[in-house]
Design a protein that fits this description.
The complex is a heterodimer of chains A (266) and B (124).
Chain A lengths: L1 H31 L11 E5 L25 H9 L16 H4 L15 E6 L3 E6 L4 E7 L14 E7 L2 E7 L19 E10 L2 E9 L8 E10 L11 H12 L12
Parallel strand pairs in A: 4-5
Antiparallel strand pairs in A: 1-2, 1-9, 2-3, 3-4, 5-6, 6-7, 7-8, 8-9
Chain B lengths: L32 E11 L6 E7 L5 E7 L3 H6 L12 E8 L6 E9 L4 E2 L6
Parallel strand pairs in B: 3-5
Antiparallel strand pairs in B: 1-2, 1-4, 2-3, 4-5, 5-6
Chain lengths: 266, 124
């Protein structure tokens, strides 16, 4: 028994010694070469405030089309004035032209982040994913690569990104032009070019600074900002908005008869 | 008082709320109605939870109402779950009525017969 204990102690010391040598070697190798920069960690569940408009001066959308900080082209201004939002001070739910309400169209981006709901960032070395609980939608940001030669036109666009110090700079193109940038109806075209600078300004706060370039809709680039707070309970729920939900609501609350029966009765 | 229509009309400052579904345009947020009522249905659905209820009007006639609450995730965050209400539950409920006069509204608060007050769940 005594010999067995002695051999166990020798084995343990040997293993500890090997681990120590390995660690020392590793530190030596790291300190001998250039330090490998680690990108900031953006991962986590994030939630923003409810706003109506990306206009920095008018987030509650009291003067859509006349904010003073959004350089509309005549086309975009006319379109903005023609839209009927479903939310905000000038909302009319019954006559809204909001495609995300009227037709349950995807929000697209950046509108997907403007709900007072959560999204999760999953960060890998080559791709960053945003997963929104609203409508269970998602977006990917491919890192350190150029745009496709001829990007498909999609609801969420094509996004590529790279780290500049502690800031993730994301360049997006290829939006389909059918979505609103925000709930109040700021329009864009397929020529939208969006640049984001994303930074975790403190452990609990993530800031997205946007620049929108779209010569058909805006006479010059304009900026907006969204801020999100870290949520630590780990919960991501499901809220999916469908056209059947919309028709059901209109039937029950507005007495509007749906074009076909919405759901078979149980 | 129980089972009798109780209407409180309160003039409030109009507060713009983020209302994704029915929205503030459907409801007169300058008015609140409080009713003693019986739950007829509790629909835990997307995008917003719906509550059906019966309540007597001032002539003793039963009126049916449908109220819009918030989204399930918001309701959960305020203490609700899909079994918070059952048909037959007796409640006192306060809501914003519809602007067009139909018997629909937007839930503000709800107290159950045992005195439990479920968290405010404005449509959002």
């Amino acid at each position: 028994m005594r010999n067995q204990s002695l051999w166990s102690a020798v084995w343990l010391l040997g293993i500890l010694g090997l681990i120590s040598v390995g660690l020392i070697s590793g530190y030596s190798a790291a300190s001998a070469g250039k330090p490998i920069p680690q990108p900031p960690d953006l991962s986590g569940i994030w939630q923003g405030k409810a706003i109506q408009s990306l206009s920095p001066s008018d987030p509650s959308a009291h003067k859509p089309g006349a904010e003073g900080d959004i350089p509309y082209t005549p086309w975009a201004l006319a379109r903005m004035k023609a839209e009927v939002p479903a939310t905000g001070p000038k909302a009319n739910f019954e006559t809204t032209t909001d495609p995300a309400i009227r037709f349950a169209d995807p929000d697209g981006y950046p509108r997907a982040s403007i709900h007072p709901m959560r999204f999760k960032i999953v960060q890998t070395p080559d791709t960053i994913y945003q997963l929104w609980e609203y409508n269970k939608s998602w977006r990917q940001i491919a890192l350190n690569r150029p745009h496709s030669k001829d990007p498909d036109i999609t609801w969420f666009g094509e996004s590529v990104g790279k780290w500049e110090g502690d800031t993730l700079v994301v360049d997006s193109v290829g939006f389909n032009g059918s979505t609103w940038l925000d709930p109040i109806g700021h329009p864009h075209t397929e020529d939208l070019h969006m640049i984001e600078r994303i930074r975790r300004v403190d452990p609990e706060t993530l800031v997205f600074n946007f620049t929108f370039e779209d010569p058909k809709a805006y006479t010059k680039p304009w900026d907006a900002q969204l801020t999100f707070k870290l949520v630590t309970d780990g919960i991501m729920t499901e809220t999916i908005y469908t056209i059947s939900d919309e028709l059901s609501f209109r039937e029950r609350f507005l007495n509007e008869k749906p074009p076909i029966p919405i759901r078979p009765s149980n | 008082m129980k089972g009798k229509l109780l209407v409180l009309v309160v003039l409030l400052t109009a507060i713009p709320l983020f209302a994704h579904h029915g929205g503030t345009s459907l409801y007169d947020i300058s008015k609140q109605i409080t009713l003693d009522a019986t739950v007829t249905e509790f629909v835990w659905t997307n995008p917003h939870v719906e509550i059906g209820l019966d309540a007597k009007d001032d002539k003793g006639k039963v009126q049916h109402w449908i109220l819009e609450a918030s989204s399930p995730p918001v309701m959960v965050s305020r203490g609700w779950n899909r079994k918070s209400l059952q048909p037959g539950d007796v409640i006192k409920v306060t809501f914003n009525p519809a602007t067009r006069g139909a018997n629909v509204g937007r839930l503000i608060k709800l107290i159950k017969a045992d005195g439990e007050e479920l968290g405010r769940a404005l449509a959002q």
